[in-house]
């Protein structure tokens, strides 16, 4: 998955601000649909300016697949970006992945408002806590 994130980062680098914004929104459209029944207080990511829900599932071979959604298009794109490096990976691999470092090329703090980026550490923490719980 990291290569996919690298490919998107390479494309992102050559875009102007408006196109970067659109690219992130388009990433959100690639997420699997999350049923409304899973959008509960238990799956809500705290600290985000928009509502963001993340629900982990396990594949038959033990990999983690995250369903995610947001009520804001740009925030949905941000969670899609966060998940790119860990989607469908074994929990141990997710724990070993530096998700934050993978996001550095996107310079989100300078590309988006602070309201849009304030919840990113919480998104990352939720993914890593889930992986830690499943490897314990």
Q: Major sheet, described briefly?
A: 3 strands, antiparallel
> What is the residue-averaged pLDDT?
91
Tally of strands = 3
Unreliable runs:
none
Relative strand content? 5-15%
Structural class: alpha+beta
User: Count of helical segments?
Assistant: 8
What share of the residues lie within helices?
40-55%
Distance, first to last CA: 24 Å
Tally of separate domains? 1
Strand order of the largest sheet: 1-2-3
Briefly note the CATH topology name.
Sufe protein. Chain: A
Give the class-level CATH name: Alpha Beta
Provide an overview of this structure.
The structure is a single chain. This protein is of the alpha+beta class. The chain has a single domain (2-135), classed as Sufe protein. Chain: A, CATH 3.90.1010. The protein is built from eight helices and three strands. It has helices at 2-13, 17-28, 73-84, 91-96, 99-103, 108-111, 114-117, 120-135, and strands spanning 52-58, 63-70, 89-90. Strands 1-2-3 form a three-stranded antiparallel sheet. Strand 1 (52-58) and strand 2 (63-70) form a beta hairpin. Helix 2 crosses helix 3 and helix 3 crosses helix 8.
Secondary structure topology:
Layout: H1 2-13, H2 17-28, E1 52-58, E2 63-70, H3 73-84, E3 89-90, H4 91-96, H5 99-103, H6 108-111, H7 114-117, H8 120-135
Helix pairs in contact: 2-3, 3-8
Features:
alpha+beta; Sufe protein. Chain: A; 8 helices; 3 strands
Q: In summary, what is this structure?
A:
This protein is α+β, with helices and mostly antiparallel strands. It has 8 helices and 3 strands.
């Amino acid at each position: 998955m990291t290569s996919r994130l690298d490919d998107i980062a390479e494309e992102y680098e050559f875009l102007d601000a408006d196109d970067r914004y659109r690219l992130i929104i388009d990433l959100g459209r690639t997420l699997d649909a999350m049923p409304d029944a899973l959008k509960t207080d238990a799956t809500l990511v705290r600290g985000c300016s928009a509502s963001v829900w993340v629900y982990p599932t396990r594949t038959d071979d033990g990999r983690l697949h995250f369903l995610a959604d947001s009520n804001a298009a740009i925030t949905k794109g941000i969670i899609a970006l966060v998940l790119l490096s860990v989607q469908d990976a074994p929990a141990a691999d997710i724990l070993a992945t530096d998700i934050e470092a993978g996001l550095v090329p996107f310079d989100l703090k300078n590309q988006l408002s602070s309201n849009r980026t304030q919840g990113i550490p919480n998104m990352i923490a939720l993914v890593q806590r889930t992986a830690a719980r499943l490897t314990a």
